[in-house]
Write a structure and sequence with these properties.
Number of strands: 0
Distance between the termini: 25 Å
Order of helices and strands: HHHH
Number of helices: 4
Structural class: mainly alpha
Helix content: 55-70%
Length: 76
Amino acid sequence: MVFEMEDRPLAEQIKAAADYRGFTMKKLGEEYNRRFGTKFIQQSFSRKINKGTLSWEELKRLGQILGFKPKLELVD
């Protein structure tokens, strides 16, 4: 499935993908911590998403959980 949301803020895209896969943001944060051995508290996890301060590695990990691949696309 392709979400045609590239013009939307990253936080909105992540939340839509999480919702599509049946995750609340709280459950997504818990799953992220469980899978990757991190210790994000919910507030800091949500803040990273809402402010768009995720690293590329964090974004890839969220994609793994949600079954999506982030990609960089060359724009001419």
